[in-house]
Amino acid sequence: MATRRMTRSEQLQQTILYPLDWLEERSGLVGGVKYFLFRKVPGDINWFQTLGSATLTAFLVQATTGVILAMYYKPDPNSAYASIQNITNHVFAGWLVRGMHRWGASVFIILMFMHMGRVFLFGAYKYPRELNWIVGVLLLAMGLGEGFTGYLLPWDQTAYWATVVGININGTAPFLGPFLAQFLQGGTYINADTLSRFYSIHMLLIPGGIMALIGLHLYLVIRLGVTSPPWSKEAAGTGPLADASTNGAGPRSGLVNPRPRRSAR
Amino acid sequence: MASDRLVERRRVFQQYKADVKERGKPFYPYAMWHDTLMSFVVVGVIIGCAVVWKYTSLLGKLYDKPADPGTINFVPRPDWYFYFLFYLLRIFKWPNSVFLGTIGIPTICLLLLIAIPFLDVRFERRLLRRPVAVVAACLVVVSMGVLTYKGATAKEALGSELIAQVPHWAAKQGFTNNPQAIAGAKLFAVSGCLNCHTYLGSGGHNLGAPELTAEGAKNKGIDFQVRHLTCPSCVNPGSPMPSFAGLGPARLNQLAHFLEASKGGK
């Protein structure tokens, strides 16, 4: 009786886990997720270190609301403005989606700056994380590019004239400037093609780049680990390994009894 | 020396990895809980902004009037997070240094940002031992804050108020008897020129646009003025000024007469 029940529950477990095993055997993805979830992070990490994932969340909000907006928005000078009005006034919860996209952009940019400030103040850009800092700066530049290209899309007066001047400013850059301006507006002057060009850059080119770089950014975070706050008395990387075993009792001794800091380097 | 540092920093990173392995906590659930809570806060704030935007006027209008390339009054104002750049352009004057504001300083800042890990190669991460980094960070935050604030509060020139100034301009510049110039002055007042240019103390100094009070003293001629208004960057390569061709030849001619009649006043 008991053995039969065991086998049944085992069978059940096997059935449930079968898809996961199947996936794992063919891709190793389950192991990867497990590694991601159960990898160790320093015990003293801080609330400030949630700013990176908060930025990612803001980006995901932008991506989701952006996809919904793209279903209703028409990138054509004759109908863009009307489609924005339609989204705002008639589409179910359209005002909410548009509002979230509009203000999510600001939140995304604020969070990018705050995250960058945190990394700077924690000195977390130092060896071996220099590359991740550079990827982050590129993400910041691309995020601002999203802000610039998205601003034109409502095709109202503010949007239009801010973009006219913005493109003209791009055009003042040496060497590449005129080409950049011409590329952005699809001609010598801002015209009907400019809007669809901005739309394409805003929803395909830059987001693609951002997603790729976020992937690299996260890969480097997981590979190199998260830094302890610099003021932490038990910061990872400060004490020699030997201390932990000699220091005393219990597996949590490193967390409970902060070891004396080594001199600063 | 350099290779000593290389060896040392590799050792410290190995130490870090060993320490994390030994006394770190698993990402799930410990850190992930913090991240999840923070994410909910972020989404909540975004939804809150959307609701406030919809139901109050605190965050501005839902949309402006539709874009009109032939308009004669506009304010070239970027989204608020570009205000620092927007205001930076007020500081520099056309044509000598405006390049610094438009491209120079932003490019230098971006390159400096990328270079930070290579400029600061010490191990030290504690703030009290990184005075240069802390002072630099404070300066950046303060200057970005001030530039953003100044950009946000920068006064815009209103056509309806400016047009009342026209008789005063005419008297000062001595073109009271020149109907072409008077008509041009009225156009000048309502066409948004003073959103960037300054004239007899009116207007905002945006985008490095020059002061025009004494534009006529340069005697560039009506033809030049019309050509410039039609396509500023054709005449002044690199000018960020938009084309005013939408006004039509007759009105451009009036504007040109007004500019040529502006000899500096008394």
- Largest two-chain interface: A-B, 98 and 90 residues
The best one-word shape of chain A is: globular
Largest sheet of chain A: none
Average pLDDT of chain B: 84
List the helices and strands and how they pair.
The complex is a heterodimer of chains A (265) and B (266).
Chain A: H1 2-27, H2 29-38, E1 40-41, H3 51-72, H4 80-89, H5 94-121, H6 130-152, H7 157-171, H8 177-185, H9 192-224, H10 241-247, H11 253-256
Helix pairs in contact in A: 3-5, 4-5, 5-6, 6-7, 6-9, 7-8
Chain B: H1 2-23, E1 25-26, H2 27-55, H3 83-91, H4 98-119, H5 131-153, H6 159-162, H7 166-173, H8 179-190, H9 222-230, H10 232-235, H11 249-261
Helix pairs in contact in B: 3-4, 3-5, 7-8, 8-11, 9-11
Written description of the protein model:
The complex is a heterodimer of chains A (265) and B (266). In chain A, helix 4 (80-89) packs across helix 5 (94-121), helix 6 (130-152) packs antiparallel against helix 9 and helix 7 (157-171) packs antiparallel against helix 8 (177-185). Chain A has eleven helices and one strand; from the N terminus they run ααβααααααααα. Chain A has helices spanning 2-27, 29-38, 51-72, 80-89, 94-121, 130-152, 157-171, 177-185, 192-224, 241-247, 253-256, and one strand spanning 40-41. The termini of chain A are far apart. With 265 residues, chain A is an all-alpha fold. Residues 241-260 of chain A have low confidence and may be disordered. Chain B has 266 residues and is mainly α. Among the domains of chain B are: 1-63, no CATH class; 159-261, Cytochrome Bc1 Complex, Chain D, domain 2. Helix content of chain B is 58%, strand content 1%. Chain B contains eleven helices and one strand; from the N terminus they run αβαααααααααα. Chain B has helices at residues 2-23, 27-55, 83-91, 98-119, 131-153, 159-162, 166-173, 179-190, 222-230, 232-235, 249-261; one strand at residues 25-26. In chain B, helix 9 (222-230) packs across helix 11. Chain B starts with a helix and ends in a 5-residue tail after the last helix. The model of chain B has no long low-confidence stretch (mean pLDDT 84). Classes of the chains: A mainly alpha (265), B mainly alpha (266). Chains A and B meet through helix 2, strand 1, helix 3, helix 4 and helix 5 of A and helix 1, strand 1, helix 2, helix 4 and helix 5 of B. Strand 1 (40-41) of chain A pairs antiparallel with strand 1 of chain B, so a sheet runs across the interface.
